[in-house]
Write a structure and sequence with these properties.
Helices cover 69% and strands 4% of the residues. With 188 residues, the chain is mainly alpha-helical.
Length: 188
């Protein structure tokens, strides 16, 4: 906590749960909300499947396939907002120690970490785009032909959108950290 009593972490947003202050902030909130809707749909599907198995000895067709596709989408839809709000799990014991002695150096290190995160998510986008095109053009689906056919490409598209949003978020966080790291040479 800082002097004002607000939670503050050198790695991200100034306060946890900070309201979105930009169009991009609202986009990350919208993507996260879409991920939450998927979680609710998954919970409904699992419960319906369990009830179907127990009450009428018949599972709900397609639930297993939907869950397998949706779980990855949830992660990628929510990662940008999770990073924006600094609500991710992190192990920064060493950098936190550095921050108590050299806060500008710690900000620089966090900035580098964020740039690495951006690069990783951009690599994911670069790697997954051809897979999306192949699935879209090939009409790939999960399930049983003629019975339950869930197209795969929309779920792959959420990976690309979420990874691109995460990359942008990490670049924004890196810029914030590099600004904090600027100053007199005595602080570094």
């Amino acid at each position: 906590m800082n002097e004002a009593g607000n939670e503050h972490n050198n790695g991200g947003a100034s306060t946890r749960g900070a309201p979105p202050r930009s169009g991009f902030g609202w986009l990350t909130v919208a993507l996260s909300a879409a991920g939450t809707v998927l979680i609710i749909l998954m919970a409904i599907g699992v419960n319906a499947d369990i009830l179907g198995r127990e009450l009428i000895n018949h599972p709900v067709p397609g639930v297993t396939e939907f869950l397998g596709l949706a779980i990855v989408s949830v992660v990628f839809l929510q990662i940008a907002n999770t990073s924006r709000e600094d609500r991710h799990i992190s192990n920064d014991l060493l950098v936190s120690w550095v921050a108590t002695r050299r806060p500008r150096l710690a900000s620089f290190i966090y900035g580098v970490f964020h740039l690495v995160g951006a690069a990783i998510f951009l690599l994911i986008v670069w790697w997954v785009v051809p897979i999306l095109l192949e699935n879209y053009n090939g009409g790939y689906y999960k399930g049983t032909a003629g019975f339950v056919e869930i197209p795969v490409w929309p779920f792959i598209a959420t990976v690309i959108v979420g990874a691109a949003a995460a990359a942008v978020q990490y670049v924004l966080l890196a810029i914030e950290q590099f600004r904090r790291s600027g100053g007199s040479a005595n602080d570094v």
